[in-house]
């Protein structure tokens, strides 16, 4: 697989034509084979890119311009449809290639299981890695209906790989009783809120390498209805932007990030992908040093 090969017909706004010169690489992971409710997030990456054309290049939050950022949009990965295990291998191998080339990976999902092979690859390079997970759902099951490869299991897998105290969860408001118990006992677990506990936890992380994974369904469905498992009682897009900026202005060394679970078919207004595109702009400008 060529790391500079674009497979989709559109790119994120102001993407460079040069993989070699880029510091960051945006790539899509169009997989939604294990979702437990509504499929459709495999179309998320392409629609986020399309929505990005409506963005201003300038971020007044960070006083930075996307025209000054050198990044490459590699398009969507070619994944074997319906084969979750093989698709995860393709994603992991691709990200390892990016890291070998000293690129900053920015992933567009896809269901949340796609973050698992990325975290594995990041942990191989950064053994002192921490993960910031912002989501409505705990994703701490060890299996779902007997299937360990599920969009409800990636953070449990990450905790078992890295140690739960290297995982920081925010905004969780849905999960089984067992997941909440596991989170409170094993994870830096902060249900319901995002910005306030994040502000408390960031200084504890110091300057360690951090991977940030955000599920769009942390937002209230009134802000982002286009997702597979919408959950009432979420935060606003303003609060999520605040969280991204808190991370960007902290001392942590963000080494990669992703945004997952945008399912455009459930949002004819396109507000979900519009929000997602802005979040990607802010992560690109705030996280890539």
TrEMBL record:
GO terms for molecular function: agmatinase activity; metal ion binding. Its cofactor is Mn(2+). Keywords: Hydrolase, Manganese, Metal-binding, Polyamine biosynthesis, Putrescine biosynthesis, Spermidine biosynthesis. The keyword Metal-binding applies. Binds 2 manganese ions per subunit. It catalyses: agmatine + H2O = urea + putrescine. One of its GO terms (biological process) is spermidine biosynthetic process. It holds the Pfam family Arginase. It is an enzyme of class 3 (hydrolase). Its EC number is 3.5.3.11. Belongs to the arginase family. Agmatinase subfamily. This is Agmatinase. It comes from Paenibacillus lentus. The lineage of its organism: Bacteria, Bacillati, Bacillota, Bacilli, Bacillales. The gene is speB.
